[in-house]
């Protein structure tokens, strides 16, 4: 059995190094590590090649997003050899050899996509499992606080036959482990999505083909949390743009209208809640400005500086 592990980098060599320090301990004859670099400006691909000669680096000429980079590393790796499994792993994680080997062992002959239990640096559990919300539930989340919306998004993961596996509709791509054929069958990542929703889009397509997402509580990794965008407004605009694409792609005109309506109501309510505090708190003013930009974006106005 041979497994391909793919990391995507965009600057941030230090955290990538910490991740690779663990990965290179895996048996080289069974595991291949590939890094797709999204045109880093801090010398990340050169440093990886120098410090980790056993790692294959694919330096991309431009940053076309998380999904494209993963796909490209997968395509180029398979030009030279075949792999039984592929693991997509965030570079801002501290994995463990035991966790990865456990995921591979239990991925055999199963129509499922596996993920480890993810923890924060302080040891607390980081929820990475989610539900596919109905259209009504999705829209109602616009009226909820961030914490309340998250509660509905996550729901409650269910134990599978009283085992150490937890089942939910989908799990985000901090770490995914699956047969390489599964990734091909589902259709890889949608390269029209630059960032955010690429994993939900893949998960939705996978669920349509009968795949389940299973979280293995006996396999654990730490997720440090990196941040791939320049600022909060940039991340928020990118998130909302990807959400609109996802809903339009899968639910047509109604989906686009639903996404725009959700984002308009959400930002309008957030602005209303922030206004009383804007006189005294700079943070409230900053957040109100962000939601003002998002509100205009929901109405189709573009041209914001990301």
Keywords, please?
single chain; 306 residues; alpha/beta; Spore Coat Polysaccharide Biosynthesis Protein SpsA, Chain A; 5-stranded mixed sheet; globular
Class based on secondary structure composition and strand pairing: alpha/beta
Number of strands: 12
Q: How many distinct domains?
A: 2
**Radius of gyration in whole Å, from Cα?**
20 Å
Q: What proportion of the residues form beta strands (DSSP E)?
A: 15-25%
Contiguous runs where pLDDT drops below 50 for at least 5 residues: none
Helix content: 40-55%
Order of helices and strands: EHEHEHEEHEEHHEEEEHHEHH
Describe the protein in words:
There is one protein chain. This protein is an alpha/beta fold and 306 residues long. It folds into 2 domains: 221 residues, Spore Coat Polysaccharide Biosynthesis Protein SpsA, Chain A (Alpha-Beta Complex), CATH 3.90.550.60; 67 residues. Strand 2, helix 2 and strand 3 form a beta-alpha-beta unit. Helix 9 crosses helix 10. The longest helix has 43 residues. The N and C termini lie far apart (44 Å).
Write the layout of secondary structure elements.
Layout: E1 3-9, H1 13-23, E2 31-37, H2 44-51, E3 56-59, H3 66-77, E4 85-89, E5 93-94, H4 97-106, E6 112-119, E7 129-130, H5 135-140, H6 146-154, E8 158-159, E9 165-168, E10 170-171, E11 175-179, H7 180-186, H8 198-208, E12 212-223, H9 232-274, H10 282-298
Parallel strand pairs: 1-2, 1-4, 2-3, 6-12
Antiparallel strand pairs: 4-11, 5-12, 7-10, 8-9, 9-12
Helix pairs in contact: 9-10
